[in-house]
Structures are given as structure tokens and as C-alpha cells.
Amino acid sequence: MKRLGRGLGAILEDAEAGYLKDLPNSGINEIEVYKIKPNPFQPRKEFNEESINELAESIKKHGLIQPIIVIKDKKNDSYILVAGERRLKAVKKLGKEKIKAIVVDYTIDDLREYALIENIQREDLSPIEIALSLYELIKKHGYTHEELAKNLGKSRTYITNMLRILNLPDEVIEKIRKKEISLGHAKILVSLDEEEAKSLADRIVKENLSVREVEQIVKKMKQKDKNEYLDEGIIKITEKFKENDIKVELGKNYIKIKYKNDTDLEKLKKLLGIIN
Questions:
Q1: Are 257 and 246 in contact (CB under 8 A)?
Q2: What is the 3-state secondary structure (H, E, C) of the chain?
Q3: pLDDT tier at 270 (50, 70, 90 boundaries)?
Q4: pLDDT band at 170, cuts 50/70/90?
Q5: Average pLDDT value for the chain
Q6: Cβ proximity of 78 and 35 under 8 Å
Q7: Angstrom distance (rounded) from CA 68 to CA 160
Q8: How many CB atoms lie within 10 A of CB 238?
């Protein structure tokens, strides 16, 4: 099984905590600031300017205590930032030409994989963003559902159900993305065909339906669909059984009648017109 193992995530944790002895190529380098390119997979797009200014003042006074982390871009003489974007911004603000950095021996594919996994763990992502990240891990890195589940500490069912959401109609996916309908709603909608899913998604938003209410609606829809292929006379007979507390299960090619005791059996005989 393909494993993340310690991997880049654990390396970053060590570096951020200052455990440099366990890092590959762990020597601290002085790297020209202009050679460092931003992390293309950085999920955070906005940084608090006041916080950057405060960090810059601290670095000016005490120096950069914790180095940034980079990987070497083997295409040219440059580096790609892995961790420490706030520190890099603060150093740039001070006009410094070099910055302390730890160069870890990973590739751009490793960085992409780590970013996707980190994204999945974030609480503010929508179900669609999580599902897309899972899909990317499977497509680009060859994970099976089982491998992903073990590496992420999730169940295989969780992985499969999240990926199924991507099969919903675009209109429904957009509602999930906007958080107009929840993950609980989405898991129910995947059992419907395209038109049914779109129609019910509209109702969820318009009527502010709870997950429980949607479950009941879908249950009735499926019961109605099942009854469409049953003979009306059979349905009436089974309703009569139910009125007499006899359990009946209907299928496309079968009728199951269940009784618990002799009393139920006598009721059943009378209803069926059986003479001893």
C-alpha cells in the first residue's frame, strides 16, 4: 500500500517545532529572497498586514528565530516555499536580501500531495472542495479508496460517499459549494436520478428542509416508485394485512407475509380464506 508515512507532513511539523536533527538535508542555508517563489498550493490567500508588520518588527529586533522551509526547483536556480510565508513577507518588508531557510529533499509532486491532504483536514472547506481534493489524490497519486481511508484516518465508506457527491448535477454541486445545502442533504440526494436530485435540492433551499425531512421525502418517493409496478389489487390486499397487524413486504416479483405466533397465523388464514 502506498503510504504517506512520516512524509512531508511530519517533516514540516518537526521543522516548525525546531527539531532540525531529524530533517533530511537539515542544514540551515542563507538564501537570496528573490530566488524564492511562493507556494502554488498555499490554501491561505489573504494575510493580515498588521500581523506581518508586527512580525517584521520582531525579526528586526531579535532576528529570524525559525527558518522558513523550501524545496529546490530543479528546473532552474530557484526555490519553492513550503512553509513560512508570513516570515518571508516580513523579511521582504524589512528589505533584507537573504533569509534563513531549510531545504528539504522533496519534489513539486510531493508538495502538491501534501497540500491536498492538508486541505482535506481543514474545517472550513466545503464538502465539494474536500471531494475534489480526494479525487485529485486518486487521479494524480494512484491511491485506492482503502489506502486513502487509512492514510487520512477516515473510513472507506467516508471516502466513497464523498466522491459520490461529485456525480450530482452541476446545479446541486453549486448549492453544496455555496453551503445552501449540507453534506447530510447531499448524501441523500446521490441516491436519486438527475432530475429528482435537482428538484429536491431546490425544495431544500426554498423550504429550508432538514436532513430528516429530506430522508422522509426520499423514502416516500422510493415507495411510490416501487408501487408503480405492483398490481393495484395486490396493494389493496397487503393494506388489509397491515390493518390486521400482519407484516407484509412487497417486491417486484415477490410478496413476503410474516407472522409472529399462532394468533397471527389464524388471522392470516381467515384473510386468505383458508379452511382447515
A1: yes
A2: CCCCCCHHHHHHHHHHHCCHHHCCCCCEEEEEHHHEECCCCCCCCCCCHHHHHHHHHHHHHHCCCCCEEEEEECCCCEEEEEECHHHHHHHHHCCCCEEEEEECCCCHHHHHHHHHHHHHHCCCCCHHHHHHHHHHHHHHHCCCHHHHHHHHCCCHHHHHHHHHHHHCCHHHHHHHHCCCCCHHHHHHHCCCCHHHHHHHHHHHHHHCCCHHHHHHHHHHHHHHHHHHCCCHHHHHHHHHHHHCCCEEEECCCCEEEECCCHHHHHHHHHHHCCCC
A3: confident
A4: very high
A5: 78
A6: yes
A7: 37
A8: 18
Cell representation of residue 223: 415507495
Better pLDDT: 28 or 157: 157
Torsion of CA 151, 157, 159, 165, to 10 degrees: -170
Q: Which of 7-21, 35-49, 78-92, 234-248 has the lowest mean pLDDT?
A: 7-21
Residue 248 has pLDDT above 60, yes or no: yes
**Cα 57 from Cα 243, distance rounded (Å):** 80
Q: At what angle do helices 127-141 and 108-121 cross, to 10 degrees?
A: 150
* Full-model pTM: 0.54
What domains can you pick out in the chain, each with its CATH number?
Answer: 7-106 (3.90.1530.10), 111-225 (1.10.10.2830), 229-272 (no CATH)
CB 255 within 8 Å of CB 249 = yes
Range in 62-66, 88-92, 154-158, 246-250 the model is least confident about:
246-250
Residue 227 confidence (pLDDT) = 57
Q: In the chain, what percentage of residues exceed pLDDT 90?
A: 15
pLDDT confidence of residue 6: 43
